[in-house]
Amino acid sequence: MRVVKFPAQPKRRPAGLMGAPVSDPKRERMVARAERIVELLSTRVIRDGWSFDTNRAARFLHCLRTFDVKDVKDGNSPEFAEILDWVSDHGQSLNWILGSEPSPDSMICMLAQYSPGRRQTRVLQGA
Fold this sequence. Notes:
Blueprint: H1 25-43, H2 54-66, H3 69-74, H4 78-89, H5 94-98, H6 104-112
Helix pairs in contact: 1-2, 2-4
């Protein structure tokens, strides 16, 4: 397993683009969703004994900002491996972060498929 170098050196941009900001709206939305997850998990009491590694979260966000899709498709992306590990360790939805799922509704329904799904009838006490 290769180790992600943090922070990685930015890739050199063509001379014609030097000084011009590069904007990728899809990547910006993806990072914004991930930043929201990091913010929530770092500021809430999740359960007794919960701890949150802010350095690892920063590495996770850095990897989201810098991973190359081409390397992911080639199976040669330590940044994406870091993303997968973080998402798995924190029980989050990679589909929602990457934007494959358009809304939290699909995430809710996806997670519901893992519930027992049995119809439960409550018996009222004293009725």
